């Protein structure tokens, strides 16, 4: 995520929505006092209290729940940002996030995990991970053992209400970024370099990987963003 005091914007980063690509592009215009999490090149560094840097273990989980003490997490929520910065300052900045069709997003998450597991075992990515998607996602054992239910809705909402000024649609990523740049008064174009796209081999649309039962399960999981943003299967 990014808090840019120079351009007065806040980017809260959701999962499986090309957030790393957008963050990298925006980091290039950030100033020395801006906050950029995750060690992304360009702009400033992620700022956290000096004392927390002396802790002899990684503080990622602590950042997720205690950003005021340990610094912002890559996926800090807009509610956490507001508490840390203060409501007046937060409300005066242009706030935005990215969202993606939940059915497409779920398949992408699965393929990424599957390919990573294959690489650890064989050193290669293997075949199309979507082949096992239906079997595993309909297994309550698999869902119990793995992180499968994304929490993007809580990143850009407060009390189940959208609390950002704009949501970029993953389906029109460049167009959405261009809109953000106009809103924050940046008169230049930023090229998006898509990262981590190798996780999923495109063989048709995401719909071909779903059964009616699995389609309905994902619809129940993410009904809030589906309803709020008008997504359809």
As a percent range, the share of helical residues equals: 25-40%
Domain count:
1
Strand percent estimate: 5-15%
The overall pLDDT average reads: 84
Tell me about the biggest sheet? Answer: 5 strands, mixed
Termini Cα gap: 29 Å
Rg of Cα set: 18 Å
The CATH first-level class comes to: Alpha Beta
> What's the SSE pattern?
EEHEHHHHEHHHEEEHHH
Strand order of the largest sheet: 3-1-2-4-7
Record the SSE blueprint:
Elements: E1 2-4, E2 9-11, H1 19-27, E3 35-36, H2 60-65, H3 67-70, H4 78-85, H5 87-92, E4 94-99, H6 102-122, H7 133-137, H8 140-145, E5 157-158, E6 161-162, E7 166-169, H9 173-183, H10 212-221, H11 223-229
Parallel strand pairs: 2-4, 4-7
Antiparallel strand pairs: 1-2, 1-3, 5-6
């Amino acid at each position: 995520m990014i808090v840019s005091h120079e351009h007065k914007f806040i980017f809260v980063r959701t999962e499986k929505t090309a957030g790393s690509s957008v963050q990298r592009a925006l980091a290039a215009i950030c100033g020395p006092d801006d906050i950029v999490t995750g060690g992304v090149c360009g702009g400033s560094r992620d700022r956290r209290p000096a004392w927390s840097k002396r802790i002899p273990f990684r503080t990622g989980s602590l950042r997720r729940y205690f950003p005021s003490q340990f610094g912002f997490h890559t996926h800090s929520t807009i509610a956490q940002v507001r508490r840390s910065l203060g409501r007046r300052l937060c409300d005066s900045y242009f706030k935005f996030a990215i969202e993606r069709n939940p059915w497409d997003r779920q398949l992408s998450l699965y393929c990424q995990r599957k390919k990573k597991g294959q690489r650890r075992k064989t050193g290669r990515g293997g075949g199309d991970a979507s082949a096992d998607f239906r079997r595993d996602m309909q297994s309550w054992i698999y869902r119990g053992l793995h992180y499968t239910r994304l929490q993007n809705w809580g990143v850009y909402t407060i009390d189940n209400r959208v609390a950002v000024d704009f949501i970029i649609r993953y389906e029109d990523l460049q167009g959405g970024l261009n809109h953000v740049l106009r809103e924050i008064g940046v008169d230049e174009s930023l090229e998006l370099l898509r990262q981590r796209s190798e996780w999923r081999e495109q063989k048709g649309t995401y719909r071909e990987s779903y059964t009616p039962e699995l389609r309905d399960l994902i619809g129940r999981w993410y009904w809030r963003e589906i309803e709020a943003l008008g997504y359809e299967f």
